[in-house]
Amino acid sequence: MILNGHGEQKYAPGNLLMTSAERRWSDILAERWQHKAGSLSCIKPLETEIAILFKGNLRVRRRAYDQVQDTMAVPGTVWFCPAGVSEEEIKIFDAIDDCIHLYIPSKPFSDTALYDFDVDPARIELQYTGGFRDEMVEQIGRAIKREMCAPSSVGDLLVETLRVTLAAHLLRHYSSLAPTKQTRTGRGSLNQIRLQRVIEFITANVTRNISLIELADEACLSPYHFARAFKISTGMTPHQFVMSKKLDLAKKLIASHNYSISEIAFRTGFSNQSHFIKAFKRTTGLTPGKYREKFI
C-alpha cells in the first residue's frame, strides 16, 4: 500500500525538507520537516503518525480526548497520533529545525498481531500518547532518515524490516494489548533447512531488489518473526546479509576484469555507480578500482 500522509495539510506553515514519496515504500511514508513556532492545523488523519524530534529543545503542547500532553521536548522525543484521532490543539512554542514524521496504515500490525501475538488485530487500538523518549523508535527514525539522505541498494528491504519492527514495538508498548501478553513460544533461530532455503533464494536473486515478504515466505514465517529469527541465526539483519552477498558478487566480477565498475554496479543491483563505490569502500576499505589492482 502506497501512503499519502497528511503533512502538507497539518504542517503547511513549516518547511518540508525531504520526503520518501518517490521511493514508493510499501506501507510507510517518511517526511522530514522544519516547523515554525505557533499553532498547527488540527485534522482527522487517515493514517497513523509517529513524529520524532531530531533537533531542537522546546515546549510542545497538544490535546485530544480531553488529554493534554505538555512537554519540554529534546532530541529523541516521540509523539504518536493514531488514525482517526482528531487533535483539538497542537502548539509549538519554538522552532523545530529537524523532525521526521512517519506515516503507517491505520491498522499497522495486522500480520504481526495474527502470527506473533495470537490476537485479533481488529480489537487492538493504538494509544494517543507522546512527549517522551523511546530508544527503539528513535533508532528506527534515524535509520530511515539515513536511508533517505543516502539511498542504498538494499534500502527497500531495510525500510520494510524497520516498518514491521516498528509495528511490533507499537503493539507491545503503545496499544490496548495487555502488557502481560507474550509472543508465542518457540521463537528463536531458523532451523538449518529454512535458513539454507532463504540463503539459496538470496543468492539466486541477489542482482535484484528482494523484499522482506519474499524472504519470510521462503521461511514460512511472518515478516516480523523472520527478521528476528534470521538475525539470531546469522548475526546480521536481512538487509545486511543481502548487502554482503551483493558485495561478494561484486568482488568476483571485479577480479574477473570482464566488466567496468559501472557495469558491476548495475549487475549487483545498485542504483548508481556512486552508491556502489561508497558501499564497497565502507566494507573493504578500498575503492573498486583499488581492489581491482590487487588482481593485476
Q: Could you outline the blueprint of secondary structure elements for this entry?
A:
Layout lengths: L6 H4 L4 E5 L9 E7 L2 E2 L8 E8 L2 E7 L2 E7 L3 E5 L7 E4 L3 E9 L5 H8 L11 E5 L1 H15 L5 H19 L18 H13 L7 H8 L3 H12 L3 H19 L4 H7 L5 H12 L3 H6 L3
Antiparallel strand pairs: 1-2, 2-9, 3-8, 4-7, 4-9, 5-6, 5-8, 7-10
How would you characterize the overall build of this protein?
The protein has 11 helices and 10 strands. A hairpin with a 2-residue loop joins strand 5 and strand 6. It is globular. The chain has 296 residues and is of the alpha+beta class. Strands 1-2-9-4-7-10 form a 6-stranded antiparallel β-sheet, covered by helices on one side. The protein has a 4-stranded antiparallel β-sheet with strand order 3-8-5-6, with no helix packed on it. It has 2 domains: 169 residues, Jelly Rolls; 104 residues, Arc Repressor Mutant, subunit A.
Q: What is the compact description of this entry?
A:
The chain is an alpha+beta fold and 296 residues long.
Residue stretches low in confidence (pLDDT < 50, at least 5 long) are 180-186
The helix/strand order is: HEEEEEEEEEHEHHHHHHHHH
Helix content: 40-55%
Rg result:
21 Å
The percentage of residues in β strands lies in 15-25%
What is the mean predicted local confidence, pLDDT?
A: 89
Taking the sheet with the most strands, its summary is: 6 strands, antiparallel
By CATH reckoning, the class of the largest domain would read Mainly Beta
Whole-number tally of structural domains: 2
Distance N terminus to C terminus?
Answer: 49 Å
